[in-house]
């Protein structure tokens, strides 16, 4: 039954206040994720000797259904409710991320995963990203509203960032640290901090990148492979580029791709290459357009917003969403050094897809039309 504008129920108010265009774009991406895992996952499962060819596909259907429920449920909250949930989520994710350094499963020299009863494998740092973006936005808004007395809030947000950076560096997960830092610096810039401070922080970030190159051998290897071709280009990138070339404009057809049979992580980090081979350039451009639409639409919604907390929170979440999509697609196309990062909603992954849904739920809640701010319960 259609919801009337006169419907004052929670669901009715949500339907007429949420950005339905953004919601539709996100659900379309989730549907594409279902299609692409259906296309790529069986070949991967068979290659690694999984108990069933449909193992990854069945799991991803469960993940996507859970993600859709999380996104819808979180989008019902008020900005104040979002702040509270983000604070709890940040505290829990930070503790669990720190726990990976002690009891985490080591994979390829890094400790990023926890094996938990009932839950299974969990990458808690994925949940740090959206939760920290909202917490940082709240503290920055508090600091700006306090004027010269806001030094305590600034000190707190910088301290929290330092804690997150330290934990991610120790895992190590330099790619995740890069995304968190880029989003954090974006929020600082949007907050209107003195340009000298912004330039100084930018210099600090650049120094960190240079330091990562010299301190972490896997970072140096990937950068050298990208810039100089040392040791030959990455096998995965070679196969991915071959897949894009084979797909051409229209693709070879759903399920007809061959590169997924030999491409490691074809269902996860390199799912965009499977899209390119089986569905062609046009569908790749459509996916790119969907990500662009979500980011631009979100920023447009903020033009009429006056609450700094909402502006900073939504800006950080949009920067995070867009940057993660860019990193995945650009590394698949060999435009940047390879980085194991999923394509939001399209790649296989439990922790990743649920965390992204949480972040987009935050975004939908923050950008809802609030005709009655006292009823909606804003931050202040």
UniProtKB/TrEMBL annotation:
Subcellular location: Membrane
EC numbers, comma separated: 2.4.99.28
GO cellular component: cell division site; plasma membrane
Listed transmembrane segments: 21-45, 57-78, 85-107, 150-168, 174-191, 196-216, 279-296, 308-327, 347-366
Taxonomic path: Bacteria, Pseudomonadati, Pseudomonadota, Alphaproteobacteria, Acetobacterales
GO biological process: cell division; peptidoglycan biosynthetic process; regulation of cell shape
Matches recorded under InterPro entries: FtsW/RodA (IPR001182)
Membrane topology label: Multi-pass membrane protein
Top-level taxonomic group: Bacteria
PANTHER family recorded: CELL CYCLE PROTEIN, PEPTIDOGLYCAN GLYCOSYLTRANSFERASE FTSW-RELATED
KW Iron-sulfur (keyword) present: no
Pfam families linked: FTSW_RODA_SPOVE
Name of the protein this chain belongs to: Probable peptidoglycan glycosyltransferase FtsW
Native source species: Muricoccus pecuniae
Sequence similarity: Belongs to the SEDS family. FtsW subfamily.
Principal location: membrane
Catalytic activity: [GlcNAc-(1->4)-Mur2Ac(oyl-L-Ala-gamma-D-Glu-L-Lys-D-Ala-D-Ala)](n)-di-trans,octa-cis-undecaprenyl diphosphate + beta-D-GlcNAc-(1->4)-Mur2Ac(oyl-L-Ala-gamma-D-Glu-L-Lys-D-Ala-D-Ala)-di-trans,octa-cis-undecaprenyl diphosphate = [GlcNAc-(1->4)-Mur2Ac(oyl-L-Ala-gamma-D-Glu-L-Lys-D-Ala-D-Ala)](n+1)-di-trans,octa-cis-undecaprenyl diphosphate + di-trans,octa-cis-undecaprenyl diphosphate + H(+)
Keywords: Cell cycle, Cell division, Cell shape, Glycosyltransferase, Membrane, Peptidoglycan synthesis, Transferase, Transmembrane, Transmembrane helix
GO terms, molecular function: lipid-linked peptidoglycan transporter activity; peptidoglycan glycosyltransferase activity
